[in-house]
Request: fold
Amino acid sequence: GANAAGKSNFLDVFRFLRDIAKPEGGGLQKAVSDRGGLSKIRCLHARRGEVVIEIEISEKSGDGNPSWKYIISLKNEGSGHQRPVVAREEVYRYDDDGQKTCLLKRPLTVDENDPERLTQTAMEQIQSNKEFRALAELMSGTTYLHLVPQLIKFGNLIGGNQLESDPFGQAFMERISNTPEKTRSSRLKRIQKALSSAIPQFEEIRFENDKMGRPHLEAKYTHYRPNGSWQKEDQFSDGTLRLVALFWLLLDGDNMLLLEEPEMSLDEEIVRQFPKMIEKLEKSRKKARRQIIISTHSAALLSDPAIDARFVLRLTPANEGTEIQAPSPEEKDMIKSGFSVAETILPKAHPLKAAQMELSI
Reply:
């Protein structure tokens, strides 16, 4: 999708579900408050007061039979503090034959007798989600990082509050530091191998704590001195920091991963390798492969003809909000015949009046 098409909002749906499912440091009230209230979550074109999210979860990609279904509908209280409350919450489990069993359907009688209960979702309550805790754990494990290099380079000078779940990488160095040493060393070796192909004169990357105990990454580059030249992360280029973060995230965790415009600050040829690199890393996993959702408008990233049209969505602003469209049958046929997503779908995602910008100034 183009700028302001709704790509970030689409990713935030999964972040929102993660936040309401977190038993600690999360929950409905915090998830809504962090986003500025229900009015900021609701679509600008909405004509009704409720915000509804409905998801189905399958065991693997391409599986037409869901394993779970979750529906959450939110509205503001009719009086008092105008807090967000649960208007409807439903959980369904499917068996191997596709038969659906309802595990939860709110509001319950106890909710109606005690409306205060509706200020929380059942998903966030350990005493209430026993039958579908696997779903709650899946949702709460979602990872999102849109690393802002300056927050790492100038973190000591910028200071300020760190947002919950660290979406912009303020605590990225602590994330690496808190990883067990054996795992950390193994990942850095794999990252070092990848960076040596992508960054000129790059030789080695290592992790160290300084005299104050603060964690640092150091990179070694070829130099006229025999021992080379070492730089700390505050001297890395923006692209190098974003690459390190991207590789680290791909190697870290098992649940859903959300990547927002990973092509930023990177050479097009490097971005062109992302699909193959991600596929290779996922195939090397000992555990089940994770789902990765990427937002982009990069022709380089979408130029790989191996990208399956079934897993591509185009976001288009319309009069009543954003429309999310799957490729048409004709576009799927073109991709099957060897054309890339960049050639068939991306041109339709560009702003229609972009060519008039120069004339408007």
